[in-house]
Design goal:
By secondary structure, this protein is of the alpha+beta class. The protein is about 50% helix and about 10% strand. The chain has a 4-stranded mixed beta sheet with strand order 2-1-4-5, with no helix packed on it. The longest helix is centred in the last third of the chain and has 23 residues. The mean pLDDT is about 90.
């Protein structure tokens, strides 16, 4: 393992080529404006002059990050999770710093760390969990870190960074990001701990800090699978899992200064009850979608296909339904869910048929299409165009069959499905 100490890095951060690369990354990730209300599009309108001015500020050490804008998103349990949205310029600088220091720490990260790393995905973490379960590591230590991103101690994190980086200017820049503060409804709040979720640099900093946990588990021969702050440890016995839970809790709280959730953290025997990890529910080595994630997905589809709207169904599918189905399906495709995906496909088509009925408004539009398809007048009947029950009518199925939706390019979940990985070595 390369353990070189890095001294001169700051000039690489404000290199104009690096700043251009950083902006491209920020643009690709999109995102809302920060406290200065400058959008990515507006910043790009004068990109060259903006980056040159930014480079000069960094070179002369006049650059100061602005407070992040506080935004809340709802979690699956109904509680609100705080996000910190930096300005576009601050996101560019954070990306520029990450470009330089990420390779340094990637050299020492362990294979058990899967979150927010180049070339590594959540699916790899899920596959590793399945392999451990198949080998008999059925007792799962599920330790939940309470508000991890908001509670990382700055002094301990910076001490970890100093172990590999001796460039005081880079360390000072990171420290300024950590302490830049938060603006919520025009009220400024200091940040004395934590790395705001939403910051470009925060995922890397979180991995650097929890690398200590990975090292401890490796030294003790434990099988940990970690995705950022979400991790599980798999053991062969209940007694061993309970011992690991006690040891890990003490280490996280006493040594790393973090908080382990007292009620959400538990030891699970996966041969008797399920546990959830990264949106999937595991029971033995059977992998399915966490019911909460399924409900959330169906709620989104319902909102996009509400029946009291008049829309062009082709546009609705292309611009609203397909991006949602494709993104969700690609993430949840690796599980024992083929039958579920087939059922969801049918349900989505039914939702779309109801939207089309509402958009037609009059039954004569439906009859006109059926005549084109060769239906006889004696088979054309009246139908309630605004009734959910009507979406299962043979007439609406005849007019809007599965081939109709396929021709419009509707993404099928069933075709996205990928079988669970076979038993590994």
């Amino acid at each position: 393992m390369d353990r070189r100490i890095w001294y001169s890095l700051y000039d690489k951060v404000f290199n104009l080529g690096n700043l251009h690369s950083a902006f491209k990354q920020v643009k690709k990730n999109k995102g809302a404006p920060g406290v200065d209300k400058v959008t990515i599009q507006r910043y790009e309108m004068e990109l060259e002059s903006n980056l040159e001015a930014l480079q000069l500020k960094l070179k002369e050490k006049r650059y100061r990050p602005k407070p992040v804008r506080r935004k809340y998103i709802q979690k699956d349990d109904g509680k609100m999770r705080p996000l910190g949205i930096p300005t576009v310029e601050d996101r560019v600088v954070q990306a520029a710093v990450r470009n330089i220091i990420e390779p340094i720490f990637e050299e020492e990260f362990l294979p058990s760390s899967y979150g927010f790393r180049p070339g590594i995905s959540a699916h790899m973490a899920l596959d590793q969990v399945t392999k451990y379960l198949q080998k008999g590591y059925a007792h799962v230590v599920d330790a939940d870190l309470q508000s991890y991103f908001d509670t990382i101690p700055h002094d301990k994190l910076l001490a970890r960074l100093r172990m590999r980086i001796k460039d005081g200017s880079v360390l000072g820049l990171i420290s300024e990001f950590l302490t830049s503060g938060v603006m919520e409804e025009q009220v400024y709040e200091e940040t004395i701990e934590g790395a705001p979720q939403g910051g470009v640099l925060s995922p890397l900093l979180s991995n650097i800090y929890l690398h200590q946990l990975d090292l401890l588990m490796e030294e003790r021969g434990q099988r940990i699978v970690r995705f950022a702050d979400d991790f599980i440890i798999l053991c062969k016995s209940k007694k061993g899992a309970e011992r690991v839970m006690n040891g890990v809790t003490k280490y996280l709280e006493n040594e790393l200064g973090l908080r382990v959730h007292p009620t959400k953290s538990k030891v699970v025997d996966s041969t008797k009850e399920p546990f959830t990890f990264l949106g999937y529910e595991f029971y033995r080595d059977f992998r399915r979608i966490d019911p909460k994630k399924l409900v959330k997905f169906k709620d989104k589809v319902k909102r996009k296909t509400r029946k009291n709207q008049t829309v062009n169904i082709e546009v609705l599918i292309k611009e609203e339904i397909n991006p949602l189905v494709r993104g969700w399906g690609n993430y949840f495709r690796k599980g024992n869910i083929k039958t579920l995906f087939r059922t969801l496909d049918s349900w989505i088509r039914r939702r779309l048929r109801m939207v089309q009925l509402r958009s037609w408004r009059h039954v004569k539009s439906l009859h006109r299409i059926l005549r084109r398809k060769g239906w006889k007048e004696t088979n054309l009947k009246g139908i309630r165009m605004f009734s959910w029950r009507s979406s299962k009518s043979p007439m609406i199925h005849g007019a809007l069959d599965n081939k109709f939706f396929s021709n419009l390019g509707l993404v099928s979940l069933e075709t996205i499905h990928t079988p669970v990985v076979p038993k590994g070595d």
